[in-house]
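Input sequence (194 aa), recorded before submission:
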Amino acid sequence: MAAKSKTGRRVIEIAALALTIATLYCGESWAQLKDETLVATIPTGFKIGSQSNHDRTTTLQWVKESETAQNWTEMVTVQVDRAKSARSPHQLLESTSKKWQSACKGAVANEILDGQVNGYAVSMLLLRCPLVVATGKPEITMFRVIKGNDALYSIQKTFRFEPSKEQLGQIMKYLSSVNVCDARGTEHPCPKVD
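Predicted structure, token format:
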């Protein structure tokens, strides 16, 4: 239990440094949320692989507990870009799709799904690269991008193998649970504590 407790504290420290990501881990309270916040949980069985802050962008990478940020089969990447980009989630994913298709022979992009969640524009996309030359493995990535008032928030799950339909369904459900809220008003409500 001590190891889990240390991991929980580390997650909260990183979230506090980013000032934008609230991680629900070990029953943390929503009462501490302030300003606009990306609400995302670390998936079960994952740990922090790396974190960085650069040019108003915070990036966190979570890998399976038995893997590393250098050698992984599944990775979740969370990025908060506070550079006030004028691009919509759809435009960002459209650009990402074009880059993938030019960098990966045989890459396939599903249709971008657009919608609104908690008053924010959101888009999702599934990309498949049959073979990444650098790794010799396929990469299948599902993206969710949310345009907040303070930042552009993205979360993606990448597999370095062909996931089953069940795994893709689980990831779709997980990514759909990631949202943005703003404790400064009532237009984008944050989750309530029971």
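Checked by second reader. The chain has three helices and eleven strands.
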